[in-house]
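ok posting inputs for the zinc ion job
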Amino acid sequence: MSHIGSILKRKIMWGNILFFSLVTLLGFVAAPVYIGLAGISLSELLLFFFYLAVTSFSITLGYHRLFAHTTFKANAFVRFLALFFGAAALEQSALEWSSHHRDHHRYVDTDRDPYNIKKGFWHAHIGWLIFWRHQFHFENVKDLAKSRLMMHQHKFYALWAAGAGVLLPIIIGALTGHILGAVLLSVFARLALVYHATWCINSVCHTFGKATYDIDSSAKDHWFAALITNGEGYHNYHHYFPGDYRNGVRWYQWDPTKWVIALLAKMGWAWDLKTVSRFHILAARLAAENQRMAARLETIEPHHSVTLKTLLQTQYDRLKQTLSDWEHSAREYQDVLRRQIARYSEAHKQAAFKHEEARRRFQESLAVWKSIHLLNLPF
Ligand SMILES: [Zn+2]
Ligand SMILES: [Zn+2]
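and the output
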């Protein structure tokens, strides 16, 4: 098959239009009216925030960073939770989502990018779901298709989605005496919020914000988008280094998805967390900054631009050289440290072995000495 991933065909998707209208109306209008009239109980509030958190993390941590980009590995329980509550977000099966998303990265800003920003802000936000039909070939997700659980979620997606996303919150609502609250808040308001937050990555983050690492990319870093998407808003970084389990790499950046993955790793539930070296990240940032400076120079200092341009180029070359020297010496330092630890641990092992041997020999001679006492010889 020549095509990889999905193909778009223009078609008005009436089912999706009706469904998203219903979600928006009930989630953003009926739910606040309900709270205004009936108030909100603690159990309704807790269920709403629980569902908001688990479904949004299942998309960011599960669908996006674990499945679509395989930036880390996780145990079966974590993968099951990501598939279960991922289905509850009603954003297609993990297999379809990943196939779309891998196409988005591979063919970004072209016709084969399912949420191509060149077709406009609203196309990237929601238009791609309501005015286009997508055909799948799944050739770009063969690695994921090997998982039986993943395929089960894909084949029986409607059951997973209805069970996890609609039935379970309604059952919990019934048990706590608030069915209507559960339907309006934990199903519809929660769905509406997670939908728009997810879509903002495709629309807002491909329009507004800073191109921190790659100035030619349409993807941008936007703090507000990060705030509403558990850290997915650092999208320029993510497009440049999609294999990194982090999206916000600076210490002050809001990336709870990264924190949860690190916590899972501490618990032993996740491992093989992939990261890009800090030198590569810094090199990319400096290159982008230098390009920006050169462009600014071109516009504000036309008379001196030749001398200044040469100066900037010389200093930037020097900067690159010193960075590469620093990286080299850091690697050497790490090597020396590693060798020393290995040597130390070998010496430690030998001393521990000797110590154990000496203790064993003492205990043997003690046993022999004791056995002489037990003989009760007449002296
Ligand atoms: Zn993107
Ligand atoms: Zn991505």
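notes: Residues 299 and 338 are 50 Å apart (CA to CA). The first helix runs from residue 14 to 38.
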